[in-house]
Design brief:
Layout lengths: L2 H6 L2 H37 L7 H27 L6 H6 L4 H5 L13
Helix pairs in contact: 2-3
Length: about 120
């Protein structure tokens, strides 16, 4: 941030500006995380045909879908925090599969997870 901005503004204006910067930065991080999760899922699908896939492959794919659903949830929440409420275009622009949309949720800690 420019020093000139800080000198000419009240502390509340500076804080509001820095909060807006952080929201935008977090939005970018969440978008990249979603892109990466979707790319992993697409790469997995390209390498492992679904027909007659063994149970271990199906489980690995379910994990990737769940992770992509979590990344989608994080991105949608951050978008809404920024005032962007319409997720329909997001789903289209990022080409989010329906099964990922259906898994959109936070990943909850389980009792087997270490602290």
């Amino acid at each position: 941030m420019s020093r000139d901005f800080r000198l000419d503004r009240s502390p509340v204006d500076v804080l509001a500006y820095e909060l807006a910067e952080e929201k935008a930065s977090a939005l970018g991080r969440m978008g990249r995380a979603l892109e990466n999760a979707l790319a992993k899922l697409r790469e997995f699908d390209a390498a492992h045909p679904r027909s007659a896939a063994p149970a271990s492959t199906q489980q690995a794919r379910r994990i990737l879908v769940r992770e992509a659903g979590h990344a989608l949830w994080m991105f949608v929440v951050q978008r809404e925090a920024c005032g962007l409420r319409n997720s329909r275009l997001l789903m289209r622009d990022y080409n989010v599969p329906g099964e990922v949309q259906q898994c959109m949720a936070p990943i909850l800690a389980t009792s087997s997870a270490s602290p």
